[in-house]
Write a structure and sequence with these properties.
The chain folds into 2 domains: 53 residues, no CATH class; 169 residues, Orthogonal Bundle (Lysozyme), CATH 1.10.530.10. By secondary structure, the protein is α+β, with helices and mostly antiparallel strands. A hairpin with a 4-residue loop joins strand 4 and strand 5. 33% of the residues are buried. It is 46% helix and 14% strand. It contains 12 helices and 7 strands. It has a 4-stranded mixed sheet with strand order 3-2-1-7.
Length: 314
């Protein structure tokens, strides 16, 4: 990664009277030359131990690994068995690949149904330096629409970062909205006009979706299981991201399967290893990617700096 020189201000709450669930105390103002950007701090990820989990560590490596390399790993734990070139892996026959996977299962005493994945590097997709300038724009847009800007940052880091590519499912734009979802949130999507490609309109649609659908549905699911939460808890935000990606019906199904007695990190980690309805591998990975990308962003902005000032605005 190219080094930057930053002046970082960690901004605390504007006043003691501010609501406890405000996101203002999480903001980081970053100055680089004449540019100034606002992002949300990754401090909670470190303080709550998320950064030490195998899954975010695994995806950090994948996001920064070139596409000609791959990591052989155990699906349930993301324990890395081997790093190899994609060409070397693809040079094997299907029986040879199957035999290698079986040998890993035997060596690690895994059940027959366990998955041994070969995950290719994705540094050609996750272009963090390209998407970085738009994060501040997304944070500002979500704030204008009175929606927690943490979601803007998380989604922009995961979904087509720095790119405007249409997914196989038809999702498009910086917030990867499906056509029907975008229309439901007030965007024009037809054969002549697609407002999803416009950053401001896409941010508007995504913020409405989170505020009017994802957060209420997340609360409904958690309340149905009598699980306590706060809206600014990191685990709750991750739970909302699962609803954003997989839909409330699929999230309801996997939570029902888990049947948790409490929320928190343990619930999210259980969702990483359980499937139900259409909540499968991609859905399990979504918040792992969210955590990994936030950690990479944090490392990027701290890579090279002259001075860090913690201050309070009164």
């Amino acid at each position: 990664m190219r080094s930057f020189t930053f002046l970082i201000f960690f901004i605390s709450s504007l006043s003691m009277a501010q609501p406890s669930e405000s996101w203002d105390d999480e903001k980081i103002e970053i100055k680089h030359g004449d540019q100034q950007n606002t992002i949300l701090s990754a401090e909670a990820i470190y303080n709550e131990g998320w950064a030490e989990l195998a899954q975010p560590i695994f995806w950090k490596q994948i996001m920064q690994l070139s596409s000609d390399s791959c990591l052989v790993n155990i699906g349930a734990t993301r324990e890395i068995i081997q790093k190899t070139s994609l060409a070397t892996w693809n040079s094997q026959t299907k029986p040879e690949k199957a035999a290698y996977r079986d040998s890993i299962k035997q060596l690690y005493r895994l059940p027959e149904e366990a998955h041994v994945y070969v995950t290719t590097g994705k540094s050609d997709f996750y272009k963090f330096q390209v998407v970085y300038p738009s994060i501040s724009e997304g944070v500002a847009a979500f704030e204008r629409y009175e929606v927690d800007p943490w979601y803007a940052q998380a989604i922009l880091l995961i979904e087509s970062p720095g790119q405007l590519k249409k997914s196989r499912s038809g999702a498009y734009g910086p917030f990867q909205l499906m056509p029907a979802v975008a229309r439901a949130q007030g965007l024009t999507v037809n054969r002549y006009t697609d407002e999803r490609k416009d950053f401001e309109r896409s941010a508007y649609g995504a913020s409405r979706l989170i505020n009017r659908v994802c957060i209420p549905e997340a609360k409904r699911i958690l309340n149905a299981h009598d699980l306590k939460f706060k809206e600014n808890d990191l685990w709750f935000r991750l739970f909302v991201l699962h609803v954003y990606h997989a839909g409330s019906g699929n999230v309801s199904a996997v939570v029902a399967k888990i049947n948790p007695y409490k929320g928190g990190q343990s619930l999210i980690r259980s969702m990483w290893v359980n499937s139900a309805a259409q909540f499968g591998n991609n859905s399990q990975n979504y918040t792992q990617l969210a955590l990994a990308s936030q950690l990479i962003l944090d490392e990027l902005i701290h890579e090279d700096y002259d001075y860090i000032l913690r201050c309070s605005i009164n």
